[in-house]
Design brief:
Rossmann fold, disordered C terminus, single chain, 420 residues, alpha/beta, eight-stranded mixed β-sheet, six-stranded parallel β-sheet
Length: 420
């Protein structure tokens, strides 16, 4: 088969969506398919440029000239989106040969419209891998209400891009439930599938008894309880409950609260540190990719959160890496999102409702027991091996893409519900 993949960012750029897409592209090549990627020439941060044409691991990469204002300002980001849209539209029209299927991700938003449009004009299949669900993300962020004309208009666009698609891939069951509202009811059960993202196989439990250099460098002893929030502190996450408990445990010197990463809510942690300099809270940058396993293993317990409004709009992928290294997760958020369901099903952590600092304190008390942490960490690792395995999940996605083409070419309609 000839397959086209669409996403704004692609390796060597470090944007996670591009990294996951390259994993799939390599697997498709190994299965004997011809794979072409259309992406932006500009880097995620807007500073760098990549070659316009490149072959990487057998994948043909064609980069689109676009503006590079980066993500620091909203207007610049929108200009980057617009220039990429325009360039991609021209490239899709001018591309030689007839692909069998085009798979679009969701960076930039509504990228799938171009995939659907080109597929209808040229007569091939379009599929969608939804990393962030629009317009629901905008409503969760407060940009528009569910009753506004803007939400209704963008929802109409989403229904348009997903219409006639035989495959729409969600990152979890909660996102899949929302997505089914955007596809025809008679096809929703078979078209929308739930497939979690995977962890890098290099992430393994740290060997027992082996020193952790990162933990030593930070001055944390084996007797300390290191509680870490690692990764993006974005708008959809919650920091308040963790900071409140950090304040209430400031007299317990052996509990170390660590917030490593960046994002819009990092400022909340910075403000907390300014107001409570005696709290045992430390701010760190993102972990270097080459030391991620050591970084994650340095914590005894990891923190995760998701605001109720963002359930089903996005599915953060941080649990995959934490579970992979065999560490338990203390999660604050609703009980109906994928992260909470994975933690509850696996037994690999604790789920606490928003604003429930008393239960958060109780969970922290349990986490101080080393055997309890180890038990939950082992359960987390076992769940990661079963549900977040890279080879298994990638092969599932590749097989579904192949099936979509086979069924469409045979004028058939998918009738089975597939989940992973």
């Amino acid at each position: 088969m000839k397959i086209i993949l669409l996403n704004q960012y692609y390796p060597p750029d470090t944007a996670p969506t591009g990294q996951y897409l390259h994993d799939v592209a390599k697997a498709l090549v190994q299965r004997g398919h011809t794979v072409t990627v259309f992406c932006s020439q500009r880097a995620y941060n807007g500073d760098g440029r990549y070659p316009l044409e490149e072959i990487r691991d057998g994948v043909n990469i064609h980069r689109i000239r676009a503006s590079g204002f980066g993500r620091r300002h909203g207007i610049g980001k929108m200009l980057d989106y617009a220039s990429f849209y325009l360039g991609l539209m021209m490239r899709l029209l001018a591309s030689r040969g007839q692909p069998d299927i085009v798979l679009a991700l969701t960076t930039p938003p509504h990228l799938g419209l171009l995939a659907a449009w080109a597929a209808r004009v040229r007569g091939y299949v379009h599929a969608h891998w939804v990393m962030d669900l629009y317009p629901d993300v905008l409503a969760a962020h407060g940009v528009c209400s569910h009753r506004s004309w803007l939400f209704r208009f963008l929802g109409w666009l989403t229904r348009g891009e997903l219409r006639d698609s035989p495959l729409v891939v969600a990152l979890g069951d909660d996102m899949a439930d929302r997505l089914r509202g955007y596809v025809p009811k008679d096809a929703a059960a078979s078209v929308v599938v739930s497939l979690p993202l995977w962890f890098d196989p290099v992430l393994q439990p740290w060997p027992e008894g082996k020193a952790l250099p990162f933990r030593t460098q930070q001055g944390w002893s084996d007797q300390d309880l290191v509680v870490m929030y690692s990764g993006n502190m974005g708008r959809g996450h919650r920091m308040g409950e963790f900071l409140e408990v950090a304040k209430r445990t400031s007299g317990q010197n052996d509990i170390k609260w660590v917030f490593a990463g960046g994002g819009k809510r990092r400022a909340e942690v910075e403000a907390f540190l300014h107001q409570h300099p005696d709290a045992h809270v430390r701010l760190l940058p993102y972990a270097p990719a080459e030391r991620l396993g050591e970084h994650l293993s340095s914590a005894d317990v990891h923190l995760a959160s998701l605001d109720l409004r963002w359930q089903g709009c996005m599915v953060p992928s941080k649990v995959q890496g934490i579970f992979a290294v065999g560490r338990p997760v203390l999660f604050v958020g609703g009980g109906q999102n994928s992260l909470a369901c994975w933690i509850e099903e696996s037994g690999g952590g604790w789920v606490v409702a928003p604003d429930d600092t008393e239960n958060l304190l109780q969970a922290l008390t349990q986490a101080r027991n080393m055997e309890e942490r180890r038990r939950r960490g082992r359960a987390a690792r076992a769940f990661a091996e079963a549900r977040f395995d890279r080879e298994r999940n990638i092969n599932f996605l590749c097989a579904r893409l192949e099936l979509a083409v086979q069924e469409r070419s045979g004028n058939g309609v998918a009738t089975s519900v597939a989940t992973a």
